[in-house]
Design goal:
The complex is a heterodimer of chains A (48) and B (298).
Chain A lengths: L1 H26 L1 H9 L4 H4 L3
Chain B lengths: L1 H30 L3 H6 L28 H10 L7 H14 L2 H5 L2 H10 L13 H4 L2 H16 L10 H5 L2 H14 L1 H6 L2 H19 L3 H5 L2 H7 L8 E4 L9 H5 L20 H5 L5 E4 L9
Antiparallel strand pairs in B: 1-2
Helix pairs in contact in B: 3-8, 6-12, 8-14, 10-12
The chains are: A mainly alpha (48), B mainly alpha (298).
Chain lengths: 48, 298
C-alpha cells in the first residue's frame, strides 16, 4: 500500500503541475514571463 | 587489501565528481548559448525565453536562452493582472516532482560557480557553521517575503510591483547578468549606482564564503532550492538505501558536504543529490535513481 502510494503521489503531483502550467499559459502568464525576459531586467543586474 | 579498496573508492568518487562537473558545465553552456550577447552587451530576445530553466539562471544574462523561474514568479506576481501564478506553480510542481533538488546539484549555474569556488584551497574549510540549523530556515523566509509577499503587495500607483529578491539579494543576477552587461554596454555603465555596489557586496560576500563553506547560498539563501527541497520526499529521482547492505558506518554522512544525516534522512530537504554519499559507501548500499527495485527500501 505504502509503495503504491509512493508511486501514485508523485504521478498526481506531476500531472497537477502539467495542468497548472496549461492553465497558466491559457491565462496569459507566459506572455508576462516573455515580456520580462526579453528586456534587460534593471533590478536583476543592480541598476534600478 | 584495505588500501586497494580505499584507492578504488577514491577513483569512483573522483569519476562521479568529474561526471557531475561536466554535466553542470555542459548544461550551463547549452542553456546560455547565445554567445553573441556577451560580445555585444545585449540579451537574447527569442520566444524560448517564455520557458523557464530549472536552475537559478538570470534571464538578463546575455547568453540566457530561457528564463529564471524565481525571476519569472516575481514578474507574474508583481504584474497588475495576476495575483497568483498557475504557470510557475505548475512548473515547480512538475520539475520538483520529476527531479527534486537534483536540479541544485547537477543543473544550476550558480551551484556550479559555488562548486568551482569551493575547490580553491583554504587553510581550514568550515563543515558546519554556528547556528546552521536555524540559518537553514532563512531561505524559506526569503521565499515567502522577498519572492512572494513583497512583489505581490508593495505596488506602485498603477498596481505594478517589483522583483524584490532579484533587486536586493540575488548574487547570481549580478554575476551572470550585471557584470557582462556593465562591462560591454556603455548605456548601462553610466547608470551604475549604489544598488550595483550593494549587489556586488552581496556577491563578493558569497564568493568569499564559498571558499570556506560548501554552497553557502544554496544552504541558507536560495528560494529555488527551498522550493525544490519540499519535493525531495516525493520526487521520482531519489536517494535509495538498501538497508540489507548498510553496516551503519556513517561514511555517507561524513562525506556529505550539505550536512545531511544520510542514513536517517535520505530524503532531507537539504540533499542536493550530488552523489558524494553514494561514492563514499563501501557497501554499495546507496544509489540515486528513479526506480524502486530494492525490497529493503525505507
Amino acid at each position: 500500500m505504502r509503495r503504491r502510494m509512493g508511486r501514485v503521489i508523485p504521478s498526481l503531483l506531476a500531472a497537477a503541475g502539467a495542468v497548472f502550467m496549461i492553465v497558466g499559459i491559457y491565462r496569459g502568464e507566459m506572455a508576462v514571463v516573455l515580456r520580462k525576459a526579453i528586456n534587460i531586467c534593471l533590478e536583476c543586474i543592480g541598476i534600478g | 587489501m584495505a588500501r586497494a579498496f580505499n584507492k578504488s573508492r577514491r577513483l569512483v568518487s573522483a569519476g562521479r565528481d568529474r561526471l557531475r562537473l561536466w554535466v553542470q558545465i555542459v548544461f550551463t553552456a547549452a542553456t546560455n548559448g547565445y554567445f553573441k550577447g556577451f560580445s555585444e552587451g545585449r540579451i537574447y530576445t527569442g520566444t524560448s525565453k517564455s520557458l523557464c530553466l530549472p536552475g537559478l539562471n538570470c534571464y538578463s544574462c546575455p547568453g540566457a536562452l530561457g528564463s529564471c523561474p524565481i525571476g519569472s514568479l516575481q514578474a507574474v506576481l508583481a504584474s497588475r493582472n495576476f495575483s497568483i501564478s498557475f504557470y510557475l506553480t505548475g512548473f515547480f510542481l512538475l520539475v520538483g516532482t520529476l527531479l527534486g533538488r537534483i536540479v541544485c546539484g547537477w543543473l544550476c549555474p550558480f551551484g556550479l560557480i559555488q562548486d568551482l569556488i569551493y575547490r580553491i584551497p583554504f587553510l581550514r574549510k568550515i563543515k558546519k557553521v554556528p547556528g546552521d540549523r536555524v540559518l537553514r530556515f532563512v531561505k524559506y523566509g526569503i521565499l515567502l517575503v522577498f519572492v512572494i509577499l513583497l512583489p505581490m503587495f508593495v505596488v506602485d500607483i498603477v498596481g505594478q510591483g517589483e522583483p524584490w529578491f532579484c533587486k536586493w539579494i540575488c548574487p547570481s543576477g549580478t554575476l551572470m547578468a550585471g557584470w557582462p552587461l556593465v562591462f560591454r554596454n556603455e548605456g548601462i555603465q553610466q547608470a551604475v549606482g549604489l544598488l550595483f555596489l550593494w549587489k556586488n557586496a552581496i556577491l563578493f560576500l558569497f564568493i568569499f564564503l564559498s571558499v570556506i563553506i560548501y554552497r553557502p547560498f544554496c544552504k541558507y539563501i536560495c528560494p529555488l532550492g527551498a522550493i525544490y527541497g519540499l519535493f525531495n520526499r516525493v520526487s521520482f529521482i531519489r536517494l535509495r538505501i538498501d538497508r540489507s547492505r548498510c553496516v551503519h558506518c556513517h561514511a555517507c554522512t561524513r562525506a556529505c558536504k550539505m550536512n545531511v544525516q544520510v542514513e536517517e534522512n535520505p530524503d532531507s530537504m537539504e540533499c542536493i543529490r550530488c552523489g558524494s554519499c553514494v561514492s563514499a559507501c563501501g557497501q554499495k548500499a546507496l544509489a540515486i535513481r528513479a526506480d524502486r527495485r530494492d525490497s529493503q527500501l525505507r
